[in-house]
Amino acid sequence: MNDLIQQDRSAGVLTLTFDRPDKLNALNNAMYTQLADLLQAADEDPAIGVVIITGGDSCFTSGNDLVDFLQNPPTHLDSPAFRLMKVVTQMQTPLIAAVCGAAIGIGTTLLLHCDQVVVSRNAKLRMPFVNIGLCPEFGATLLLPRLLGHARAARLLLLGETLSGADAVQWGLANELCEDGAQCLTAARQLAQRLLALPQGALRQSRQLLRQATLAELQATIRQENLLFIERLNTQEAQTALNALLNRSTEKNPSKGTPP
User: Which residue ranges does UniProt annotate as crossing the membrane (predicted)?
Assistant: First the structure.
């Protein structure tokens, strides 16, 4: 199988691009494994100072590939998606996201772990976990209320409301708004160069200090969320909602992805 995540190394920056446009960059287990491997290798490579994650100029990611997700659901804490979460929370290398179009489910919760998030005006961030009978993941239940306050976090996590790119910046989920995909990636690369120009030892130590006060709590929260996520998957409520979503997605556009 061809790689579904493209790599570009340039002057200390590793850019990882989800490359599954026919499925709206929906993430399957192979992609979770590949992304975790690439991030872990980058974190161990002294030649890499910053990692950028993007989905190109049309869609960041539509979330889980539901066909793969239903056929190969996470059943233990070392499942591919959960391993990715562990790798990301342990990274020492600065992480930037360049987000255009849809960022559904883990496409949004991943952003909570990035040091900088650049979004295009057409970005659409959504976390519809409850809508499909599941619970949030990737520490969202800890990080979002602290970032946004309970009421706003509840609108996103309980009601599954969508945020535009402009709203994401206004609410504090992103820090820079661009007009289109080309500008979005350019802005991310400019931020990467600014980070690379800094004393690297001081940068990494400062990043660690920013995160260490909540790291143990975050990891414990992610573990609890993941255990409950596995439990929720086995409920009739979730199975009914997921299969209904899969059927609607297939009927509406059989050639596209199956979010979230």
Answer: 93-112
Ramachandran area for residue 133 (φ above 0: left; ψ -120 to 50: alpha; else beta): left
pLDDT digits (tens, 9 = 90+) for 111-146: 999 999 999 999 999 999 999 999 999 999 999 999
Q: Which residue has the tokens 């940068």?
A: 203
pTM, entire model: 0.94
> Distance (Å, rounded) from C-alpha 211 to C-alpha 217?
11
What distance in Å separates the CA atoms of residue 161 and residue 154, rounded to the nearest whole number?
Answer: 9
Asked if residue 250 has pLDDT above 80, the reply is no
| Structure tokens belonging to residue 195 | 């980070």
Is the pLDDT higher at 254 or at 64? 64
- Annotate 179-213 with DSSP letters as a single string: SSHHHHHHHHHHHHHHHHTS-HHHHHHHHHHHHHH
Peptide bond into 145 cis (omega under 30): no
Question: Which two tokens mark 5?
Answer: 């995540």
Q: Is residue 231 classed as helix, strand or coil in its secondary structure? A: helix
3-state secondary structure 87-107: HHHHCCCCEEEEECCEEECHH
Residue in this structure with the two tokens 């946004």, named with its chain if needed: 148
Residue 252: count of CB within 10 angstroms of its CB: 8
Domains and CATH numbers, the chain: 5-252 (3.90.226.10)
Alpha-carbon distance of 234 to 232, in angstroms, equals: 5
Contact 112, 139 (CB under 8 A): yes
DSSP one-letter string for 138-165: TTHHHHHHHHH-HHHHHHHHTS---EEH
